[in-house]
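Hi R.,

As promised on Friday, here is the backbone we talked about, encoded as C-alpha cells. Could you run it through your design pipeline when you get a chance and send me back a sequence?
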C-alpha cells in the first residue's frame, strides 16, 4: 500500500493527494518529485526543491508534521518532564512558567515546540512508567529533566535508550551528559554567612525531603559557612519537608519547638518561606524581629508582597530557559554533549532578615 503523502491544505478543504497533484501540474513535474522535495529528500535537485517549496508557499501548503514523524522518526517536539506533587499544592509554577517561555522562544526559531509532560512518579509502582511511555510512543525528540536526584534512574534509562536529554540539575547518574544547575551551594553559603555576620549562632535550615541533588549542595554550603565562622554544626537545626508552603509550615513547627529555638532560618524555596511566616504568626513571633528568615533560590512575584518582604535569591529564568533550548537544539543538530553549566544566584536584600543580635 502506497504511503499517504504528508501535505495538508490549510486555507481550504481538500486532501493531501489533491494538493500534490495541483503542485505537480502547476510546475510540470511528477507527483513523486514534489513529494520528495517537500520531504527534503536528498535525491532532488536543489533548484527543483526551491521551486516546489515556493509554489507550495504560494498556495498555502505546509508539511504535515505527523506524517513526517512516522517516516523520519522525528516529532519536532522537546518534552519537559514536570513532576507535580500529590494533593493541591503544586510547587514551582512561577519558576517553570517563566522558564517555559524562554525555552519555547528559542525552540520556535529551530522549528521545534516545547511539550510540558506532567508526571507523578509515585502514581504507579514503576517510577519510570511515564518515561517509558514517552519513549515507546516516540512522543518527543529530546527531553529536559528537572529535579534531578543524587542517583537518578531516569537519566540512566535515557542514556541507555539513546534519546537526547538535558538535565536541569546535577546527578551521579546518566554518564556524560549535558546539564545546567543553579549554584545552590554558593547561595546557602552566602545566606548563612550573612546570618552569622549579623550575630546569629543558632541558624536553622529547611531542606527538601528525598534525595534531590540540590539538597546535598545546599547543605554543603550551609555547613561550610558555619565552619568558616567557627560555629558548630547542630543536626537538630536541620529539617526536611515538601517544597511547598505546607512543607515550610511543618518545618517551622519542628524548628520553633526547639529550646532554645533558632534565631534565623534559611529555606531552600520561597514557597517554604510562606509556611514559615504562617507558623511564626501563629506563635506570636515576628519575622525579621524575633526570627530572621532568608528563603528561596528564586525571587517569585509573591516574595516582595510578604510582610516583611522576603530576602531571597534571584535568577533570570527566561534566560535559563533560552539556554536549555540552545543546548538541546545543538544536540539535535548532531553536536557533542555540552559541558555542564553552573548558574550563579544573586541575593535580593529585603526586610525578613534585618534582625541583628
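Update: got your reply. Pasting your designed sequence below so it's all in one thread:
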Amino acid at each position: 500500500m502506497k504511503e499517504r503523502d504528508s501535505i495538508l491544505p490549510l486555507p481550504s478543504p481538500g486532501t493531501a493527494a489533491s494538493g500534490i497533484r495541483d503542485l505537480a501540474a502547476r510546475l510540470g513535474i511528477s507527483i513523486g518529485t514534489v513529494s520528495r522535495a517537500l520531504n527534503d529528500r536528498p535525491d532532488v535537485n536543489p533548484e527543483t526543491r526551491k521551486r516546489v517549496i515556493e509554489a507550495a508557499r504560494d498556495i498555502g501548503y505546509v508539511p504535515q508534521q505527523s506524517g513526517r514523524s512516522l517516516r523520519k522518526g522525528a516529532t519536532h517536539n522537546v518534552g519537559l518532564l514536570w513532576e507535580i506533587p500529590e494533593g493541591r499544592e503544586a510547587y514551582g509554577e512561577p519558576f517553570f512558567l517563566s522558564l517555559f517561555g524562554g525555552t519555547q522562544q528559542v525552540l520556535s526559531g529551530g522549528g521545534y515546540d516545547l511539550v510540558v509532560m506532567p508526571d507523578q512518579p509515585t502514581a504507579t509502582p514503576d517510577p519510570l512508567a511515564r518515561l517509558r511511555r514517552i519513549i515507546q510512543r516516540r512522543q518527543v525528540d529530546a527531553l529536559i529533566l528537572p529535579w534531578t536526584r543524587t542517583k537518578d534512574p531516569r537519566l540512566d534509562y535515557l542514556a541507555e535508550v539513546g534519546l537526547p536529554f538535558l538535565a536541569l540539575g546535577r546527578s551521579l547518574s546518566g554518564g556524560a551528559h549535558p546539564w545546567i544547575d543553579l549554584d545552590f551551594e554558593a547561595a546557602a553559603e552566602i545566606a548563612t554567612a550573612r546570618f552569622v555576620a549579623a550575630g546569629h549562632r543558632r541558624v536553622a535550615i529547611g531542606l527538601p525531603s528525598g534525595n534531590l541533588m540540590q539538597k546535598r549542595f545546599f547543605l554543603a554550603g550551609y555547613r561550610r559557612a558555619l565552619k568558616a565562622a567557627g560555629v558548630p554544626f547542630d543536626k537538630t537545626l536541620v529539617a526536611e519537608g515538601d517544597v511547598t508552603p505546607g512543607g515550610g509550615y511543618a518545618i517551622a513547627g519542628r524548628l520553633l519547638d526547639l529550646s532554645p529555638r533558632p534565631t534565623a532560618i534559611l529555606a531552600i524555596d520561597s514557597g517554604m518561606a510562606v509556611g514559615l511566616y504562617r507558623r511564626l504568626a501563629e506563635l506570636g513571633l515576628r519575622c525579621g524581629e524575633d526570627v530572621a528568615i532568608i528563603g528561596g533560590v528564586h525571587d517569585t512575584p509573591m516574595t516582595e508582597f510578604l510582610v516583611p518582604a522576603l530576602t531571597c535569591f534571584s535568577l533570570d529564568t527566561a534566560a535559563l530557559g533560552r539556554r536549555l533550548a540552545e543546548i538541546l537544539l545543538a544536540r539535535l543538530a548532531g553536536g557533542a554533549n555540552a559541558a555542564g553549566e553552573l548558574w550563579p544566584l544573586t541575593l535580593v536584600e529585603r526586610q525578613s532578615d534585618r534582625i541583628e543580635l
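One thing I noticed while checking it: Residues 1-18, 64-71 have pLDDT under 50 and may be disordered.

Thanks again,
M.
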